[in-house]
From TrEMBL, chain A:
GO BP: any one term: iron-sulfur cluster assembly
Name of the protein in question: Fe-S cluster assembly protein SufD
Highest taxon in the source lineage: Bacteria
Domain SUF system FeS cluster assembly SufBD core residue range list: 147-379
Residues covered by the SUF system FeS cluster assembly SufBD N-terminal domain: 44-142
Entry-linked PANTHER family: PROTEIN ABCI7, CHLOROPLASTIC
Automatic annotation (TrEMBL), chain B:
Record flagged with keyword Transferase: no
Name used for this protein in its record: ABC transporter ATP-binding protein
Record-stated family: Belongs to the ABC transporter superfamily. Ycf16 family.
Keyword tags: ATP-binding, Nucleotide-binding
Residue ranges of every copy of the ABC transporter domain listed in the record: 5-253
Molecular functions per Gene Ontology: ATP binding; ATP hydrolysis activity
Organism per entry: Chloroflexus islandicus
Entry annotated with the keyword ATP-binding: yes
Gene: sufC
Pfam families in alphabetical order: ABC_tran
Length: 404, 259
């Protein structure tokens, strides 16, 4: 039996409220959803100059009915140490106060029309909570999937790592090839406590056709540390707004990215490093490869707030063009509102595959196409080598190779 | 079919600049053949053209090896035919480890048309054994192979890696372009040892060098002198010593005097 789900233009605030209530959600959440939906309905779309949403049609976007897209992979024995890793729907029954306290405080729900849409309609999602001092060695994995054409999901990831705890989390977005109109609006919020350490690997490798409009933010407390890897390979149109806010003194960020846009893909990412605390260090290196007639945008930013002091930061983006018709816009920015900066800089490079590298490898018998593949893999290696699971790394390698 | 490398009346330029002006040279199988010459005489250009560098335009002539005109083959096809160039300036490829690069090169040589590359790939244990042997001969640490290809390598490390590649690929015709540049005496000895272990009746070696020094360690059978894009003189090992003693100007004067 198939029922036709209501599309965005058919949904009303009453329907949003009714669904929340019938799911037994707490009143504060129902109210947040109502408020967000009202904002969505009233707002104009954000003016994203480099993101083409002209083909996004609300009459074809049908939010999924319930949370069917979340898969959690971990060792449940960790629960004995107080670790919580479960769907948000389940966690609302067991950790409501925690969720209420943190949710929506990193990614602002009413920032623009799409953030409001996500906040109003999310169903899928997971809570990861790591108690104070607990160190988890084995990577935890969270997979969001889109199984059917033309549906929309709004998954949200909420990660709370208490002081001096450590964890590795892989967040993945994956699907078969879908027809245009399939839609994902994820929200990811990470809270890294005093002296805590997080390795976060976020992988967007949807099949073709998917629109991916995401908001991600990590907030670092004192001496907190995050190693963040952002990998973007799939979908049709992507717009990711990501930020790490170094709030606590002495916090550190190391952010690596790999984006590969091919065919007619249009992949935009805007990672921001925002310095608030004293003596914080951040480093960002994003790599972009474009092929065919694809278009990618790197809109990275270092923002050094007036209350910060003794910041050290560097941002790099490097782009490789495999086709003369492919395009990459790199717009690295630096906004400084204080005189007290220790080190700050950014750099970006762009070019074709180095002919001397190709020649050198060919003189060892390696055919040109294989040499090209190896050079691209080498270009992405800094990000790829941080992917903690061998079989996942092999999967990504194959996906990248198929796009060359 | 001859396994000599035969260069016939080779002309080449880069941009508007003519560099090779009728090179005639035969490197016989089983010999070590040195080309000496002053800077700018076209020695390195010749080595690049043998290997197939895309920046040079060949305007005349042929290079024959094993029944093929090399000029008609891609650089990787020349390599698989047995031609090897040890670069004067090896190229860095960040993100590609030495181990992966060597394995890819070996497997490219082992590949056979119509066969699954997995079938012809070198078994892991055999690869490790070969590597260990090579590293040992060249006095290199095993950690070397996990580094990115030539990325941040010292001059000596780059030259050793060139010889390691040669040892693993076992070419039948090796061209060594200024392999001695930037090496101290100890490193030079090690590198020369690597070359001498390979050289033999099956292999031709073309040693390109500015100085006679390298030829103390890699003994040539034939010495050719290149000037202004041509081979101007050919002789035995004594010619290298004579050049070392009298300098290139002596030969230049003799040649212009004779003209």
């Amino acid at each position: 039996m198939t029922t036709t789900l209501p599309t965005l233009n058919e949904i009303s605030a009453e329907m949003v409220v009714a669904r929340s209530q019938s799911a037994g959600e707490p009143a504060w959440l129902t109210e947040r959803r109502r408020e967000a939906w009202t904002a969505f309905a009233q707002m104009n779309p954000p003016e994203w100059r480099r993101t083409d949403l002209s083909k996004l049609d609300p009459t074809t976007i049908a939010p999924s009915d319930g949370a069917h897209a979340t898969a959690i992979q971990w060792d449940p024995a960790l629960a004995a140490q107080g670790v919580v890793f479960t769907t948000l729907a389940a966690a609302l029954h067991t950790h409501e106060a925690l969720i209420q306290k943190y949710m929506d405080t990193a990614v602002e729900p009413l920032k623009h029309k799409f953030s409001a849409l996500r906040a109003a309609l999310w169903q899928d999602g997971a809570l990861l909570y790591v108690p104070k001092g607990v160190a988890i060695e084995v990577p935890l994995r969270l997979i969001y999937t889109l199984a059917t054409d033309g549906t929309a999901i709004f998954p949200r990831t909420l990660v709370i790592v208490e002081p001096h705890a450590s964890v590795t989390l892989i967040e993945e977005f994956t699907s078969p090839d879908l027809r245009a109109g399939s839609f994902a609006g994820p929200i990811t919020e990470l809270f890294v406590g005093d002296g805590a350490s997080v390795r976060f690997v976020s992988i967007q490798h949807w099949g073709s056709g998917v629109y991916h409009l995401a908001g991600q933010r990590a907030i670092l407390a004192r001496d907190a540390n995050i190693e963040w890897t952002s990998i973007q390979l799939g979908g049709q149109v992507q717009h990711i707004e990501a930020e790490t806010t170094l709030v606590g003194n002495g916090s550190r960020l190391n952010w690596l990215g790999a984006t590969f846009a091919a065919d007619t893909q249009h992949l935009v990412i805007a990672p921001w490093m925002r310095h608030v605390g004293h003596n914080c260090e951040s480093f960002m290196q994003f790599k972009t490869v474009v092929n065919d007639t694809a278009y990618s945008v790197f809109d990275g930013m270092i923002k050094i707030e007036h209350e910060s002091a003794a910041t050290s930061t560097r941002l790099e983006e490097h782009a490789l063009h495999l086709s003369p018709k492919a395009r990459n816009d790199s717009i690295p920015g630096l906004m400084i509102s204080t005189n007290d900066v220790l080190k700050g800089g950014h750099a970006s490079t762009s070019g074709d595959i180095d002919q001397e590298q190709l020649f050198y490898m060919q003189t060892r018998g390696i055919p040109r196409a294989e040499a090209q593949r190896m050079i691209v893999m080498g270009f992405f290696e800094p990000a790829l080598e941080t992917v903690p699971l061998e079989e996942l790394r092999a999967e990504l390698t194959a996906e990248i190779a198929a796009k060359i | 079919m001859s396994n000599d490398l035969i260069i016939k009346d080779l002309y080449a330029r880069i941009g508007d600049k003519e560099i090779l002006r009728g090179v005639n040279l035969t490197v016989r199988q089983g010999t070590i053949h040195a080309i000496m010459g002053p800077n700018g005489s076209g020695k390195s250009t010749l080595s690049y053209i043998i290997a197939g560098h895309p920046s040079y335009e060949v305007t005349g002539g042929e290079i024959w090896y094993k029944g093929h005109n090399l000029l008609e083959l891609e650089p990787d096809e020349r390599s698989r035919l047995g031609v090897f160039l040890a670069f004067q300036y090896p190229v860095a490829v960040p993100g590609v480890t030495v181990a992966n690069f060597l394995r890819a090169a070996i497997n490219a040589h082992r590949a056979e048309e119509g066969k699954d590359p997995k079938e012809t790939a070198i078994p892991a244990a055999e690869f490790r054994k070969l590597l260990r042997e090579g590293l040992n001969v060249l006095d290199m640490d095993e950690s070397f192979i996990r580094r990115y290809l030539n990325d941040g390598f010292s001059g000596g490390e780059k030259k050793r890696l060139e010889i390691l590649q040669m040892m693993l690929l076992k070419p039948s015709m090796a061209v060594l372009d200024e392999t001695d540049s930037g090496l101290d005496i100890d490193a030079l000895r090690i590198v020369a040892n690597g070359v001498n272990r390979l050289a033999g009746p099956e292999m031709g070696v073309l040693v390109i060098t500015h100085y006679q020094r390298l030829l103390n360690y890699i003994k040539p059978d034939v010495v050719s002198v290149m000037m202004d894009g041509r081979i101007v003189r050919e002789g035995g090992p004594e010619l290298a010593l004579e050049l070392e003693e009298k300098g290139y100007d002596w030969l230049r004067e003799e040649l212009t005097g004779a003209a």
